[in-house]
Prior knowledge:
By secondary structure, the protein is α+β, with helices and mostly antiparallel strands. It has one domain. The chain is built from three helices and four strands, in the order ββαββαα. It has a two-stranded antiparallel ribbon with strand order 1-2. The termini are far apart.
Amino acid sequence: MLLELKLRKVGNSLGVVLPKEALSYLKVGEGDVICITAASEGSLRVSPAKADFNRQMQIAQDVVARYRNTLRELAK
């Protein structure tokens, strides 16, 4: 699916309106939460949010912060 969407002013920000086809593809609707994550080559990935995902990401960020030096040494 390839969609070109126009940015629109929403208050002091810019926003995108997702068409019905995109919402159907993502299986989301009004009031649902979506996640936007960085993907390769400077692009973004849009996916439906999962309740456990946010909790898992918070745990991962805590581990990375706590063991930053250890992880840096292991990466060498």
